[in-house]
Every structure is written in C-alpha cells, then in structure tokens.
C-alpha cells in the first residue's frame, strides 16, 4: 500500500519528517511529492527542493521523492493508481483547512482517501513559513 505525502516543503522540516515516520508505520511505501503550489511564493526552486529533500531522506527506506510541477495532487494520485493521501495536522485550524482540501481532492478523484497524522507537541508549532522567516533573519547577521 502506497501513500502520497504532497506539499511544497519550502523547506521540509522536523514536523514533516515526523509525519513521514508515522506514515511509514502504516504504509509499505511513502511517496514524498514535492509540488508547485500556485498559491505560495516559494523561496526555493522546485528542483532545488527535490534535491534537498532527497538528501534529507537518503537514509529512509520505502521512500520515493517525486516532483509534481503542474498537476493537482488528486490527479497525480489517480495517474499513479494511488488511493491514499497523507496529511499532517498541528491544530484545529489545520483540521478545518484539511477537511476542505480532502473534500476538494474527493471531488476530483472519488476513490482517494485522506489519512491524517497529528504532529507531536515538540514540533507542532513550527510551520515552514516560520522556519523560512527565522532562516532569513539568521542569514542577515
């Protein structure tokens, strides 16, 4: 059984890694699909993000890092005959958004199911946006 964990991952961080570890306890294989999100202004190119993630996940077994430049995640899943999407939750705001996203994916690909994993407390508070901001200030010094 394969699950897709899709995101812009700009950058990938410990919260994402934690979700991958949890997903590997359920799925035989996890595809980390690095996607271009038209609603986000990513600081790093898609190809560079893929390379960085491949390096960070090099010691993981049963992981495949893939690039998705121009497809909805549900379409990407359907084209690859995968019926499960992996999503991480940090709080109730995430849950509300993720339910809407799951409904949207279902409208595109009715066979898709979304599996949620809850981040553990130590990494729950940091989003990629916050990490980018911290890194930007560190590089200015």
TrEMBL record:
Catalysed reaction(s) here are: (R)-4'-phosphopantetheine + ATP + H(+) = 3'-dephospho-CoA + diphosphate
Which EC number(s) does UniProt give? Answer: 2.7.7.3
Q: Which residues form the Cytidyltransferase-like domain?
A: 4-133
| MF terms in GO | ATP binding; pantetheine-phosphate adenylyltransferase activity
Named in its record, the pathway it takes part in is: Cofactor biosynthesis; coenzyme A biosynthesis; CoA from (R)-pantothenate: step 4/5
| InterPro entries in the record | Cyt_trans-like, PPAT, Rossmann-like_a/b/a_fold
> What's the short name of a Pfam family annotated to this entry?
CTP_transf_like
Gene Ontology CC annotations of this record: cytoplasm
Function statement: Reversibly transfers an adenylyl group from ATP to 4'-phosphopantetheine, yielding dephospho-CoA (dPCoA) and pyrophosphate.
Family of the protein in this entry: Belongs to the bacterial CoaD family.
Official protein name in the record: Phosphopantetheine adenylyltransferase
Q: Which organism is it from?
A: Spiroplasma alleghenense
């Amino acid at each position: 059984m394969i699950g897709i964990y899709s995101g812009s991952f700009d950058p990938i961080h410990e919260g994402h890694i934690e979700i991958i570890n949890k997903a590997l306890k359920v799925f035989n294989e996890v595809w980390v699909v690095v996607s271009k999100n038209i609603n986000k202004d990513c600081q790093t190119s898609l190809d560079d993000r893929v390379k960085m993630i491949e390096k960070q996940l090099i010691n993981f077994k049963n992981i495949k890092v893939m690039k998705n430049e121009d497809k909805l995640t549900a379409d990407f899943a359907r084209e690859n005959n995968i019926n499960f999407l992996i999503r991480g939750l940090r709080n109730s705001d995430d849950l509300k958004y993720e339910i809407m996203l799951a409904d949207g994916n279902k409208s595109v690909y009715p066979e898709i199911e979304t599996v949620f994993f809850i981040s553990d407390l130590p990494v729950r508070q940091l989003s990629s946006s916050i990490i980018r901001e911290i890194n930007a200030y560190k590089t200015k010094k």
